[in-house]
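REQUEST FORM: STRUCTURE PREDICTION
Request ID: SP-0412
Submitted by: Lab K.M.
Chain count: 1
Length (residues): 367
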Amino acid sequence: MEENLKKVALHDTHVKLGAKMVPFAGYQMPLRYSSDIEEHLAVRQSVGVFDVSHMGEFFVRGPKALDLVQRVTSNDATKLFDGKAQYSYLPNEDGGVIDDLLVYRLSEAEYMLVVNASNIEKDWNWIQHYNTEQVEMENASDRISLFAVQGPKATETLQKITDIKLDEMKFYTFQQGNIGGVDDIIISATGYTGAGGFELYVTNDQAEKLWNAIFEAGKPFDIKPIGLGARDTLRLEMGYCLYGNDIDDATCPIEAGLGWVTKFNKEFTNSVFLQGRKESGGENRLIGLVMVDRGIPRAGYELFNEQDEKIGRVTSGSQSPSLQKGIGLGYVEKTQAQPGSNIYVGVRNRRLKAEIMKPPFVTPTTN
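STATUS: Completed
RESULT:
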């Protein structure tokens, strides 16, 4: 029911900006302010700001914090140092994925885990299940706002309102400091767009001050607020997985292309099974596809080979504003996953031609 939906701290700001608000992951969230295409291109060409405060933040603290992170995540958190973040996932016991997440090392004894909004309760309970050493955990999701300032003009915009040398920050590093007159912001060189930029973690009581400072600084670049619609097309152009579409509780992470964040120099949930899958390669592959025929490969559409045999299905798809073509992600049998080969999307009784392509579909921009 809509009355049970949570609101982000800047809900009223988005309404005043004319956002179309929709239910998403238990929150009322801005879908778009103007048009998805206009907002998408603003991020690819200049700078835009997403309010993604629905995301979840857990703090894990104490001398055994690293042990717990290592136990429940697939990546090797011993590689982290203070000010470094990594992409990872929480495997389940059945060969699937509880969630994907970011792991931040704040200090030797404190980590921040950033999880998907729809999975906050599920992830919390899962991690607590393995917290046998009574590691201190805090679910800070309801007190933290998160703004993603993304695009080739993001660094120039934010540099006006901070003394931190943003152009010296490497991808997947972060610093804590003052930005926009607000202290103790986590400024992270990360994002979900492939357009360069930063993600800023701020307490709810300071969120409006920071938001206003960002938009004032970005005026010369025609900075725009960006909704969930453009967020989806931007991540899809990069081939980034969306939990609930491309990965879920039943998806093998190796088949989803997450072998690069699955490290077997440690024991973690279901690691023996996943190592076997990595060695065998699994049965399916997550592929990218670009339409040759006119059409959009929508999630759920079936995929066929040249012999009209069903070989898989689409998990994410949309019209790419950058390419002005339909693009998608989907799973096919691994013997049918060769980049450059033709594949056919079943749209009602028709077969629309597409080409298998290894993402990203557009060239990413770095800071």
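NOTES: The CA atoms of residues 96 and 253 lie 7 Å apart.
Reviewed by: T.R.
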